[in-house]
Amino acid sequence: MRIDWDAEAATFDEEPDHGLRDPAVREAWAERLRDWLPATGDVLDLGCGTGSLSLLAAEAGHRVTAVDLSPGMVERAREKLAGHAAEVLVGDAGEPPVQGRRFDAILVRHVLWTLPDPEAALRHWCGLLRPGGRLVLVEGVWGTTNPSGIPASRLADALTPLATHLHSERLSGDERLWGRRVEDERYAVVAVIPAPSRHKEVVDVHLILRRGDEVLLARRANTGYGDGLFNVPSGHVEPGEDVRTAVIREAKEEIGLDLAPEDVSAELVLQHRGPGEAARIGWFFEATYGTGGEPFNAEPEKCDGLSWHRADALPDDMVAYCRAALEAWRTGQRFALHWQEEGDAVRYERGGAERAVALAPARGAHHVELWVPDFTAAEASWGWLLGELGHVREQRWERGGSWRRGATYVVLEQSPDMRGEAHDRRLPGLNHLAFHVTGAAELDRLVARAPEHGGSLLFPERHPFAGGEEHRAAYLEDGAGFEVELVVGG
Q1: CA 243, 247, 249, 250 torsion: positive or negative?
Q2: In the predicted model, is pLDDT for residue 75 greater than 50?
Q3: Per CATH, is 5-192 categorized as 3.40.50.150?
Q4: How far, rounded to the nearest angstrom, does the alpha carbon of residue 453 sit from its chain's CA centroid?
Q5: What would the pLDDT profile of 280-319 be if each residue is shown by its tens digit?
Q6: Quick one: DSSP state of residue 379?
Q7: Domain 202-358's class?
Q8: With a threshold of 0.90, does the pTM exceed it?
């Protein structure tokens, strides 16, 4: 319901409580406004009518913006406020045309009850206040047979979750405010609005424990969320923790690993929201099997088993966002979004709505393809080494295969178009490929195991500084003459 204030103006202006022509009435309202409004500041008067309360606020030193739906009322208010720090606008009190401005106080008298959705108007008005701002509402209930207005209890219920402080006053008994005795319920409510709370999200951490092209999954149990479904070991960041410390702690608590900071690397950041839940930020870290001990189920009350699964053939019975994260990790994404809607399933659904979105395009090398004289032998040497370095098998065909690490993959193929039987790294063309390793201990481990897989150490007399005193690395060669450099650090 909306009132045509122009049609009602004659009736309202005849009463001293609306025109405030009586000096005693004006002073009574001025006293109340001094109590309700801050000492100084910007005041928004909504449904200002002819501007009587706006004028009192301006005379008290406030900067006033007044709004009314009626052009006639606005014109009269402008005349009344001429010479004061005030502007008067034509507009809807429910959504005033103030273009994002903020105020120290909003004053509304006998307007809220006319709006179609008073609760929505209150929420909108609170958003127009500065931190600590005040919402001053004068309302009431008029008549007995067919009462109009809004009861104070409804107003209190609506404002309680929005305000840090709520004060109400009964105004019916103060004849000075109305210029006469009134029997209706008339009251004022002053609500102090807190600063808008900053957006906050739970931060969780996840461990991708990799064994060659397999990852370790845990089946949830007795948690109340996703029970019976697989996900990677995970947990929440606790107060005072950084994300790396948190994932190391969770690895110990859930699967019994004693990881050091250098054992884990951040692989993916995923913002995700489950159906009907709040958004969260997930950090996914990677560690290599064999680091920190042998994993075991350290929380049988929350997990009914651990199992290894190929990263390119994950089970369907997984938590949907975890499945999306592992697919993003396997294909080289570093930042991604998985945003589920109400009604979506917690469980991954093959062929269901795709909720995962990559937030950063892949850059750098797309892939490297090596033609090898014997794919079976290359698979034994290169496949082992690439797996140890964190590459995951992506494809395999009769005489070839590919291994992916992030956005880049390596192809080994025994092509029928190949000429020659071996690779000579000293001819023009490819000399060698170089890969990062996590540290000196990892370098020594790979060098020691290389002979088992057809590799041999080049430049042994200068190892591990064949590339210079500041360059710790190993140079390996396979049986077909391909060289690989493993580099510690940058």
Answers
A1: positive
A2: yes
A3: yes
A4: 46
A5: 999 999 998 989 999 999 999 999 999 999 988 999 999 9
A6: I
A7: alpha beta
A8: no
Give 194: exposed, middle or buried? Use CB within 10 Å, 0-12, 13-18, 19+.
middle
Interatomic CA distance for residues 486 and 364, integer angstroms: 19
Instruction: With beta carbons less than 8 A apart as the criterion, state whether 91 and 44 touch.
Output: no
**The residue type at 489:** G
121, 113 Cβ separation under 8 angstroms: no
Tokens at residue 313, please?
Answer: 């053939």
- Neighbouring CB atoms inside 10 A of 63's CB total 17
- CATH number given to 367-488: 3.10.180.10
CA-closest candidate to residue 338, choices 283, 285, 276, 280: 280
**Alpha-carbon span 272 to 335, nearest angstrom:** 11
Residue 321 and residue 282 in contact, taking contact as beta carbons nearer than 8 Å: yes
Token pair belonging to 263: 């054992």
Strands in 212-334 per DSSP E: 214-220, 230-231, 234-236, 265-273, 279-288, 303-310
305: left (phi over 0), alpha (psi -120 to 50) or beta: left
CB contact set of 77 (below 8 Å; sequence gap of 6+) = 48, 49, 50, 51, 54, 66, 68, 88
